[in-house]
Every structure is written in structure tokens, then in C-alpha cells.
Amino acid sequence: MKEKTDVRQGTLALMVLKTLDVLGPLHGYGIARRIEQISGDLLSVNQGTLYPVLLKLEQEGAIASEWGASENNRKARFYRLTRDGRKQLQAETRDWEQTAAIIGRFFAAKAEDLK
Amino acid sequence: MRALRRFLKRLATTVMRRQNEERLREEFEEHLALQTAENLRSGLSPAEARRQAVLKFGAVEAIREDYRDQRGLPFLETLIQDTRHALRRLRNSPAFTITTVLTLALGIGATTSIFTLVHAVILKSLAVANPGELYRLGKESRCCWWGGYSQENEFSLVSHDLYKHFRDNTKGFAELAAFAASWDLFGVRRSGSSEAAQGYPGEYVSGNYFTMFGINPYAGRVLAPSDDRPGAPPVAVMSYRLWQQRYGRDPSVIGSVFTLSDQPVTVVGITPPGFFGDTLRSNPPDFFLPIVAEGEEVSKPESAWLDLIGRIRPGAQPASLEAQMRVELKQWLRSHWGDMTANDRARFPQQTVFLTPGGAGITSMREEYEHWLQILMMVSGFVLLIVCANVANLMLVRGLERRRQTSLSMALGARASRLVRQALTESILLSLIGGAAGLGIAFAGTRLILHFAFPSVSGMADIPISASPSVPVLLFAFGISLVTGVAFGIAPAWMATRVDPIEALRGASRSTIRTGSLPRKTLVVLQAALSLVLLSAAGLLTAALHHLEHQDFGFDPDRRIVVNFDPRLAGYYGQKQLPPIYRRIHDTLTGIPGVSAVALSIYSPLSGNAWGAEVWADGHPHPGPNDDNFVFWDRVTAGYFDVIGNPILRGRGITEEDTSTSRHVAVINEAFAHKFFKNQNPIGKYFGRDEMGSRVYEIVGIAKDARHLTFQIDKPIGPFFFLPGEQHDFSPKDGAEVSPSSHFLRDIVILTKPGASLSFGQMQQAMASVDPNLPILSIHTLREQVAGQFTQQRLIARLTSLFGALALILASIGVYGVIAYNVGSRTSEIGVRMALGADRRDVFRLILRGALALISFGLLLGIPLALAAGRFLGSQLYGINQYDPMIIALAILVLASSALTAALIPAFRASSISPLQALRAD
User: Does ipTM exceed 0.90?
Assistant: First the structure.
């Protein structure tokens, strides 16, 4: 069994935003499943920990939620991205890519490059 | 921005808690249902599918906890929870709650009521527009008139001429206003009405006075610069207070003519309700008149009687204004070089002015009462400290009683910080309730203090200090409650968590360790020490008051009545009118049955007035600029010394033979004789007023030193002289009369026959038969007048004694509490001792020894503090030894005996313990 990576809360929030951006409105379970699938089971998320993150995002106005019916016709809460959330996602994506690029360059650098 | 939105959301969700809890439950349920369904599809058994779903979801309670922390404001929620919890606990022990709240209310109330006075007298600005822009001339407040072209230390009072010089040349002031340093009483009557004239205070102010303060009229108009020009029609502005109380807000008052001391004046407007003028004083003025209306002093450049306050222009620097005014002063003085005396010229280089913040107006009251208020603030602070110690002690006992519950909570995993917080919430809640109750006590207390400190004069305005709490006072009370709550709560709260769960859970009060006994004893020691300080301060102040009241005044205050009036109020002026009216008053009053003798003076002993002059004793060189030749004097009618009971030691007093045509004479007191004539016999010698020469008055008698002045009351009586009522002095230089207004004799002293009782009505009737237009301003006995001089001292001594008694009671309760608790927790130990052969006396001694140790430590700590307090009182003790061993010994005795009495009760109880019962107890 391979080691699973722990997820930082900020990262999880970004994943939630991206998931909702790509797939549109989803309930909590759906979001959890997507994150699991996309990360290829590499990320171990205690699924429940998603809910505090959803709450925080909703309080910040990045996402909104309303009751709806799930695929098996049960009452479920659906989350969707708001305009603010989309902006936040764009900004954070940019930040993330920048950081990743910088770190990438550092890793790619060889000893002679640093002279 | 995002954080703010989140905070508001969280605040909202805190309120709608239940709803959210439901939503969370439903979401979790839905999540698990979906996961279970998925697991079923992948072939797991229903039970296993559900189990796996739950496993994958994670620890539900932890997530829920996390969710809750995210959702609401945990701090606020805990606070609400703790408050509810504390309220419930307080409700469960009403006796404890009521005792604590009452004790706290006393402490907080006393402190708040003193703070109300401190705020009004020391901290508050005038009720005018932008008081921060106001600056006034002078560092100290001076009263009331200063003559000549030089002043000591600084020029703080100015003449009308100098005011105009400053006003016209100092451009940094948007407005510079002047006003008289003292108010005058006017006999006021509405023209055409038949009412008797009544005395009301009025103040002369410059035409721009109201504009400078930014005060708009309540009705009509305020004074304008055009009213303050020579030849302008005479006008006045009336106070809202008088308009409301005397004239029922009658609009026709505005525009009607009033007679103010026999001069017709049109009232043009009413000041707004909150405005009481430029100075906080016990009887604020009811009329504001233009300076030119004063007449006499306006044209004299050497007569300084005006205070100055100005509003500076935005951006103007007070420091550069001050420098500029110093130059202007020197310019002005040089332009009067010819009028200056040699002494004035010699003092010229030192003459200067200071500009100080003027937002609080003329702060004579602050200067007078600052030290008193500091003493009271200190005393009430000590009471509050003792209250804190007392309540802390109660809380400690409460904490001990709850020990088992606390240890159970800790054993179940409660964090210590949470328990401390819970206990602190309880104590702060208690002190806030106590503070709210204390506001009531503060209101009543402040009213009482104001009533005693500034007795109201009928018809006149009261001192403009409100007893009802203002916003700063409320804030103070809230702050002090909070601090108090933390102060008495923090130690017990911390102590409560210092329990060993196992020790407590083992149950049974078999514990041999007397937990929490040391801090409780420390608190009692502290209480005893503070009480000793208050008791000895009360003793010192009371002794000082006794010393003041029972000194040898040099006159006899018994059987003497003082009637205060002013001949000017009925239009009596000058050499022609005044002597006849005095004679008529004398004859009419002497005719009342029971009256033995009557005499008049400018001011009777200890009436609060004072007249001073620089003298030149014959045979001495002319006094130089640094010679101390300033003495006080009075003008009196024939027989005055007998009437006030002041013995003549040599020669004679002022008699009927001293008329306007006879040689000018004077009677001096012993101090005068000693200062200017050393070992010679002064009878037949001469002295004069400095400006008149040295051979003006022939000394015809020496009176025993008597206390006439109300200041320097702790110093030996200084030189004093008396002139006859009918003799007028004229300056040899220009023939002008010297001190003409000293002929307005204001105090009639009546000596009654032994055993005769005289009603005030009789005297009022007699005065009305002299002239119905002559208002009597006040009537009281000389004894009352003397007592009235010590009103403040008496108030302070009584308040301190009251606080001292309160402290004593609280400290005794504290001692009782600690000893009683110790006896309670040592019941079984005492039982064992007695079973082993100790008799009742041994037990009694054992308990009492503990109490004695506490008290001794308290005294040991208290004595140096009490000595320091005596030092702090210092000048307020009027010559009483500030380390008076008798008083401190007495305080120690009182404290020790009442504390011991408090300890006796539990000691007796301990000695009556039955060993059998004690051992059976648990």
C-alpha cells in the first residue's frame, strides 16, 4: 500500500472551486468523489473534512448552495460557483501556477546554473 | 473584505444555531446514503457497505466540532454559554449573590460618585463650541482685583486698557474676550413691578464674549461689541435658570427694562440652558453685562480686574502668541512709564504673561479642590480594594466548596483555561451587576456630597454640577466594574483549577491540607492594613477639623447674628447718603427688644472677604519693591470690637468720636504692632497707605489678634488694621479718593442679650422699616458663619470617617469569615485534640492565636502605609502632626478590638464543640 498524501485545507478549497468550475453544481458527495477520482486515489481525504471547507467557502461568498434532489431522488444540498468564486479561482490558479513554475525551475536547475 | 463578510455570516449563524445543526445532520446523512449505495453497487453486503461508508467519512464528531468552529463564533458562543451558566449558579445561591452585589455596589458606588466630582471639577471642559481652541491668560487663577503696573510672577489679571491693547494687536486670536474676575451682586427688580428687589449675581463681560465662546442665545440675542461702547444703551443678557425659575419663561422678559442696583437695563436675550459662564463656581451669574456698564474701573489703566480668554485662529501657534503678548505687555507698560511707581519700575523686567489652554475656563475651583478630590479618590479607591479583597475571599470559599465538581470536570477532560474563564465570567458578571447597582448609590452619594459641600442659597443658582451620570461617568463605572471583577476573580478562578482530581475524587473531607488558606489569610491581612490606613486618615482629618473649629478665634461667635446686605442695591452712594443709612440701620436694629448692640463692617470675621493694602509705618524708610508690607484691613463703625467680642488690649476701639471731620485714626492688632513697632509702644504712632505717605493714621488702640480671614487658616494670625466707617482718605497726589468702595459696609453684626431669642422675621421687618428697597442678602449667626468656613473640611473628615467605618466593618467580616471557615474545616481536628485532653480554654486560645497573628500582620503592614497616608494629607491637616502617635494608636486599638471581636464568635463556637459529635461527623 502506497503512502497517501495529506491535503492542506487551502489546497482542498482550490480543488473544490476547480471541481465546481468544471462540472457545475454538485452535492458534497459528488465533489468528494471527483476529487478522489482526479487525484487518482493519491489523496486521502477523510470525506467529512470537506464539509467545513464548503462552509468556509460559502461564508466567503465563493460558492452558494441550495437544496435539490440527488440522482436517487433524495434531498441533497447542491453547491455552485458564484461570480466571486470564479474570480477567486482564477486568481488562485494564477498564483498556484506561478508558484509551481518557480519551484519547477528550482528543481530543474543544476549546480552550474547557479554559479 | 472577505474576512468581514465571513465574520458577519458567522455572527448570523451564531444566532440561528439550531437550524444549521439540522442542515449539517441532513447533509451528512445524504453523503453516507450515497456512499452506501455506491458500496452496495460494488457488491458489499448492506451492513458492510454502511460500515465502509462511515469509515471513509471519518470521525463524525471531530468533523462536526470543526464545522461548528468554522460556522459560528466559538468565542461568543462560549461567552453566552458561560454567562448562562454563571447566572444559573448565582441564582442558586441568592444569599451569596446579594451579599456580593451589595458589597460591590458600595465600593463601586463610592468610587463612581467621587469620580463624578473629579470629572466635573477637574476633567470637564466648558459647554462651549470647540473648547480646544480656547486659550486663557495666566497660569493660576487670581481673585479679584489687582492694582498698579506690576504683578507677582505673571500678569494674569489685566485692566480694560491693557485688554484693548492685547485685543487690537494680537492677530492670532479670532476673538479675544475679557470678563470680570469676580461677579457682583445686583439688587434686581423688574421695572414697574412692586416686587422687592432681590440679589442676583451678575458678571461684566466684553461685547465679543458670547461670540468668542460660540454661544448662541436661547431667546432674543446675546451681547454684541456695539453694546460694549461708551454711550451705548444699557443692556444685559439673563441666564436661562433665572428666566425659567423666577419668570416662568415669560417671553415678555426679553425687551423689558429691569432695575439692576438702581440702574435701568434692558434684557435683550437669554443664554442657553447648559451655559454657566467662564468659571465653574457655586453660584454662577444670572446676568451678563457689558464691561462699559461697570463705569468706575473701566477708565483706570492701573486697575487690573479682568480675565482674558481667546479663541485662536486655525493654525496659530499658542507659543508664538504668548511671545508676542509678552512684547505687547512691555510696550504697554512703557507707554505708562510716567504713571508707574518706583517699585513698579523696579519690577518691570520680571513682568511677563503666560498663555494656557482655556477650554475648562477659569479653573479656580480645580485649584481649590484638586487636592481634596485626590484624597477622596484615594480613600474611595482603598474602600474598593477592601471590597475586592472581601469578595475575593467569598469567591475563594465558594471555589473550595465546589472543589469536587471542579475536579470532576477536569477528570472528564475540561481544560483549565476553560474553567478559569468560567469562573472569571461569573465574577465579572457579579461586578457588572454590582456596578449597575453602584450607579444608584453614586447618584445619591453625589447629590448628598454636593448638598453638603455647596449648600444652596435660596433664589440663587446651584453649582452647575449634575449628579446624574454622564457618558464618561458611565464608562468609568463600567470600566471600574470590569477591573474589579477581574481583580477579585482572577485569583480564586486560578486557585479553583489547582486541585488534584484524585485528592478531591477520593471524597470525604478527610483532607488534612487546608487548601487555599494562605491566599485567604493574605487577603484579610491586606484588608486590615488598608482599614488601618483609612481609620488613621479619618482620625487625622477629624482631629484637624476639631483643631480648626475650636481654636481661639479672638472673637466670640456666640450670641452674634450677621445680616448681609449692600447699600448700593437701593442706590445709596457717597459721603452724603451712606453715614445716615448706617445710623438708621444701627438705631432701628438696636431698638428691637433683646438686641444689646449693633455695628457694621465691610466684612465680619470669617465671612470670606478680604481687603489688603501696602502700608508704610512712620519712622521706617519707604518700603522697597521686595519689602513685605502688604497687610489686610477692615472698615468698621463705632463699638464694633465689643459687638464681635474682640478685646481691646491697649488704648481704645473705634468710637462715635471718630467722624469725618476728626483726626484720622486706626486700631491695629497685636501682629501689626509686633511687625512694625517691635518693642515700642505703638499708641500715638502713625502709619499710612504706601501711596498716601506714612503719617495718615494715628494708632489709638491695639486689639487682640482675631481670625478675620478665611485663607492661611493654618498660619498664625497676620497683621491687620481697622479704620472708622465715616473717615474718607484722599490721595495727596491728585486728590482722588482712595478705596471709595470700602465705604459700602456690607455686614451688620448684632449682639443679642444673654437668653434673648431673636427671630429672623423680626430683623427682616426692622430692615424693611429702614428702607423696603434694601434687600437682605442673607442672615445667619456668627457661629454658623464660622462653621461654614469648614464645610469642606468637615465633609472630607466625615466622608473619610464613613469610608473608614465601612472598611472596618468589611475587614471584621473578613476576619470572621476566615476564622469561621478554619474552625469549620478543623472540627474533627479539634475533636481529636479535646478527646486527647485539651480543654475548652486551650481550643479557644488556639483559634484566637490564629486570629491574632492575622491582625498583627495586618497592623505591621498597615502602620507604614498609615504614616505615608499622613504625609500625603500633609497640608490639609492645618498644623496637626501628620504622624500623631495618639491617633495612629487609637486607630490600631479600634481595628484590633473590632477584628478580635469578630474572631471571638467562631472561637467560642470552636470551644463549645463536643468531641464526640466532632469525631462522628464524617
Answer: no
